[in-house]
Amino acid sequence: MKKLLFTAVLSLLASVIYCQEIEKRTYQTKFTSSPPEIDGLMDDSCWNQVAWTGDFTQTTPYENQAPTQQTAFKILYDNNNLYIFVRAYDTEAAKISRIMSRRDDFDGDMVEVNIDSDFDKKTAFSFTAMASGAKGDEAVSLDGNNWDGSWNPIWYLKTSIDDKGWNAEMKIPFTQLRFGNKEEHVWGIQMMRHLFRDEERSLWQFIPKGSPGFVSYFGELHGIKNIKPKRQIEIMPYVVAKTESFEKEDGNPFATGSKSGLSAGIDGKIGITNDFTVDFTVNPDFGQVEADPSEVNLSAFESYFSERRPFFVEGKNIYDYQPSNTYVINNFGSDNLFYSRRIGRYPHNYPDTEDNEYVDMPEATSILAAIKLTGKTKRGLSIGVMESVTANEKAEIDNNGERRTESVEPLTNYFVARMQKDFNKGETVLGGIFTAVNRDISNPALNYLHTAAYTGGIDFEHKWKERTWYVSGKATFSNVMGDKEAILNTQTSSARYYQRPDASHLSVDSNLTSLAGYGATFALGRRGQKKIQFQTSLTFRTPGHEFNDVGYMRYSDVIHHGTWMGYHIREPFSIFRNFYLNLNYWMYWNFEGTLLSTNTNVNFNAQFKNKWRINCSISRNNNSVSTIMLRGGPSFLVPGNIGANGNLSTDNSKKFSMYLGTYQRYNDKNSGFYHGAWTGITIRPMNSLSISFEPEYGKSFDELQYIETIDANGENRYIFAQLDQHTLYFTLRLNYTITPDLTIQYYGQPYISSGNYTNLKRITKPHADNYEDRYHTFTATEAIYSTVNEQFDIDENNDGNVDYSIENPNFNFREFRSNLVVRWEYKPGSTVYLVWSQGRSSSDSHGSFNYGDDMSKLFGVQPHNVFLIKLNYWFKL
């Protein structure tokens, strides 16, 4: 009994101590009639009106301990701005890291202020001051689970360094914040200090590691009275002058070797109320955006590329709707009901031409205009609406001087609407999304596109037990409409393959003019400060589910179940600063009830006390049934495989840092392997310059690589071959920051990939018990290579007659892409860009890999150079 009483008392004391540790802090600010000059020096008398606050608490690496260096700050306000002065004390001032970087690079010593001006305990505005004077800013949402670095508000910063440490003085206009119209305000406030050399973080308002939220744990800013919401009207017109040089092609009137052009447009932001903002763009230009990385895609699915265009990047989290958003490993990672790269994409169609015709093909579909409405009501309803119109894009065709145009992409309207509503102080969230695509198709050659496509979804999440436990769900639907050709194309696409002869639950209907489907995900889990966390989930999509018109989706006709469990040690121990161990299992079925695959994975990542990092993973994929390997043919029994990867990186706070890694995969039945290795070196010879070099090499062997499907006398032949592929590329980056407002960035990537196909095969018994019985390898007399026609002539029965032919599938693909961007923000919000982009590409079909020869041929071709200057000017009304 005494032991029980003693234990209870200890538990009570621990609870009291814990509550005291996370007691809500407050800061009392005051109004100033004589605002400070923003110069990084505390020499304005107005700062004497308010008191210092400090006593930060370390969170990394040693939680709830005193920080190595102390931090203090003051806050003032007037009718238009919030003023913040931060004193970052440092007993070793000579070691302050003043890495000079462009906006949002977050390098070196820094302090970060986060402001929940709406006081909704879900969203915040983050402003970061680097000791070098560089700025960073992010829009925080989902209670700290989403940080949008594309948000670029207009605010002011100056820093200074003295023998006591360094200082940051900020002016944040109220036009950049959102708050209600009330007499007295209470805002959420949080200050973070990052000591770069020790990778140490400390907070003003202590928040334990692993907490299930961030914004909801902020301290409070009191004392702001009688300020009025500011109506925000910002206009930014721009003009672009561009010239190009490229290889001249004799006889081609469009390939004259050079061309130039001038364009203009306008961007803007209007605060229609203090809670809602409209962003718009007319005839946008994204010439300063870095090119996509090169790749060779031999899969049945289209490639996924991340969004880089500023208009679509800023605030993209509002429209994010991943229908299978779980922690468990799955093949749905990139799937989303809204994939903004659809807007302004490369045109769908290429005109059919005769031998003597030349085509001037648009590089992208023109975006005529786009508009976004975003905001959150006082009752917690978040709304995001986007509308975009792209042009009826036309290619120009020349036939001996006679010109005509042909539509290659129809006039299209894209619409996305997203809503979420908080209940019970954010512990319950309900939401929904609706998307629509409508095309005005005038060219019959484009009838394979949907004339209309609609998707929607509803989602919920409920948290309890201090938000550590949660249950969530998402349901989605889709309906696409169009010509019979369009719906037939959808039925037979790689996402579902209705034509598979062994799919008893699927059939092709060539008379359909619409197709509908739905899906859902449900998850239960625990997260937060506990060492053990987990999630279990179930996802399904009916075969007719389709959201690729304005979304991205690879698979339908699938049921997925999986469970993830993690064991997290967040405090330093032994040789580690932290350690994370994760276990996964997951499996797939289709709607026929066939078990497609079972998979397991174990992985860990850790940081050592010397700030080096390591992570490793090992996965086992058992024998699986592939419904896509034969590209519309019957399913195929695929041997399992085991794969492992590992990565090691050094302390990135040093002037020299590097990482290296490898991935190894071995297939059962000796049916394939992959060997990959990569490394990266970053050198920072001075605070304003960093140079990185990142090479990667991969070698793969696949016994069965799909080539094509041949109709041989009414029977399909699924042709495969053994593929040996080598890929080598490296990425070079140079960042030179002359001042935080004047930067030079260079990106260059040569990419080489070769594929050599041998031992041609046709699939015979795709589910045979013996792997070698699932295909037939053509003999030397059955597959004869014609050097004249560069093709394999197939004589299946050795009767001397060619049954069908297969073009030589070997490839050598070489590409070089580079961007050099000089960016000067000559006044807040107004920028000049000088851009030089270069592209080179060449190809062969011998299939052998020779790095020296390939690089020589790549840089032996004439480049396509683009030079442009872009000037925009920001002003407010």
Describe this structure in words.
The protein is mainly beta and 877 residues long. Helices cover 5% and strands 52% of the residues. The strands form six sheets. The protein has a 24-stranded antiparallel β-barrel. The longest helix has 20 residues, at 2-21. It is globular and about 100 Å long. The chain starts with a helix and ends with a strand.
Can I get a quick summary?
By secondary structure, the chain is mostly beta strands. Helices cover 5% and strands 52% of the residues. Strand 31 (595-608) and strand 32 (613-621) form a beta hairpin.
Q: Count of helical segments?
A: 4
Summarize the main sheet: 24 strands, antiparallel, barrel
Q: Which range best describes the helical content: under 10%, 10-25%, 25-40%, 40-55%, 55-70% or over 70%?
A: under 10%
Distance between the first and last residues' Cα: 74 Å
The helix-and-strand class reads mainly beta
Q: Report the strand count.
A: 48
Shape: globular
> What proportion strand?
over 45%
Radius of gyration: 30 Å
> Residue ranges: pLDDT <50 for 5 or more in a row?
1-21
- Report mean pLDDT, rounded to a whole number: 92
